[in-house]
Design brief:
With 340 residues, this protein is an alpha+beta fold. The chain is built from 7 helices and 13 strands. Strands 7-13-12-11-10-9-8 form a 7-stranded antiparallel sheet. Strands 1, 2, 3, 4, 5 and 6 form a 6-stranded antiparallel sheet that branches.
Length: 340
Amino acid sequence: MAKWGEGDPRWIVEQRADATNVNNWHWTERDASNWSTERLKTLLLPVRVESEEGACEVTEVSKLDGEASINNRKGKLIFFYEWAIKLAWTGTSKTGVKYKGYVEIPNLSDENDIDEVEIHVSLAKDEPDTNLKTLMKQEGAKKIRDAMKTYISTLKTEFTQGMILPTVNGEHMETTPQVAPKAEDRKTAASSSTATSQSKSIGVKIPTCKISLKDTFLTSPEELYRVFVTQEMVQAFTHAQATLEADKGGKFQLLDGSVTGEFVDLVPEKQLVMKWRFKSWPAGHFATITLNFTDKGGETEVCLEGKGIPASEEERTKQGWQRYYFEGIKQTFGYGARLF
């Protein structure tokens, strides 16, 4: 049997007369504008800085004009975003005098490095000059730039999960935005965080369920088994980086770390048993996934049994396996349509 990439015709699926686009993956696009609007507001509104002069804080996102989108072509993600932002800020001196001003960001764009993004700080009309403007211009601008950097990072990681990961009904997974605590809340937050960490180390029981799936692939059990245990093939049908050791006790990491696990048992051409988890599941919790391969004479039937799936993840896990694993394999290697 030829190795991956050496031209074995069983692995090469060409453009066909029936117009099935198998190995030439379609261009897909997702509009990230609404998500970006909410994310930027969440990151910018908590900005607050203090000094011996007083304190300054962002009080309003008064303008947020622009758009953002992500394109996926053959597993390569292309990001586009362009925003013009205006913020309102309030400064309070140590004596209690308040000053109002604005922050304008005209060019938050994929064409500019984050350090090149302009941040203009000004006082509102008729406001007297104050050292708080300098505080906002220096320290405030740094925090605003950090917030924009976080937005770009989460756009490229958190929002893109639904485009290439077997997560949630073909939709992206959004984690709850983390709002930076104000100074007076930091002590409480720190102690709460310590308590949470201790809680996690102890662990909690969660309700779980079982899932089962069945599908048929137009290939032999031998070849289909290889797809699941060969790193290059896994990377091909998931369109993302993967590492795996196809031995008993061997670890695997798929989809840039969003799926991890360990092989429990491997019976070539017959069965795969693995401990398997999404990164978003409770820490340390793994499901047991069993894949049984049955030769149907020119076809292979795969039966998946999953145990220990978090109950809240039942449908998303089933649809993730069906769409991103089973359908991904068929589309990538041509196992879903007969070749005449």
